[in-house]
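Section 3.1 - Work completed
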Amino acid sequence: MIQKDVRLTSLEILLNQLLWNEYDRGYLIPHLLVDIEVTSPKLWLLPLSSSQIEKYNFIKEKRNQRFYYHQISVMINESHFKPQRTLKFTPQQVWGLEFKMEKRLKRLDKIENPKILSVGLVDEGSH
């Protein structure tokens, strides 16, 4: 019975020594170090107002019905929508509203792959 305890204790000591012997012998444990750059258009985003969304949906609906920008500007001026800086919507403003929103949506749908900046090995003791 005493020998079993001695063997168990000896085995524990042996295992502990094996772990520490790596360091005692000067062996270093290398680690892979990778620097990665992640970019996303969704990190900082200004929210759209309900009015902006409504105007865009109105314009898209009319464009899908094959109306021209001039026709849409007349319709939008007769509706409840009001421009922010002028008295009425022009065909150019209607085009601009649609173009800017399409550009925003395309940018938000874009998925950027991460860029690997550097790859290297680092020893246990050096970091």
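Second construct:
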Amino acid sequence: MRICPNCGHADHPMWRPRASRPFCEYTKAETLEFNNPELFAKIKETAPTPYFDGHFVYHISRTGLNAERIEKELYDLMKWGQEPQEKVDYSTMAMVPKLAEYMTNADREGSK
């Protein structure tokens, strides 16, 4: 669960980190439909195109069982179902060079 250090907004605990995709979070589609029916309807409406809400990019998995989300900046680097735009080193969970720079900047902003 994420908590914004600036405004104190807390994400719903239904979002969990995905082990197979760094920086991607997921939840069961039925859980999202129950907890946030408006968001679920928008994601289903735009499928198969990902839905962007201003901060996150969402989509329903190919099986239709899970809803996934990733931050817009990371989506621009990695995409879904496509080859990464940059070389990804999954052993260190760092994308060379843009993701490492993004994470470094995010760390600096978070430590303020």
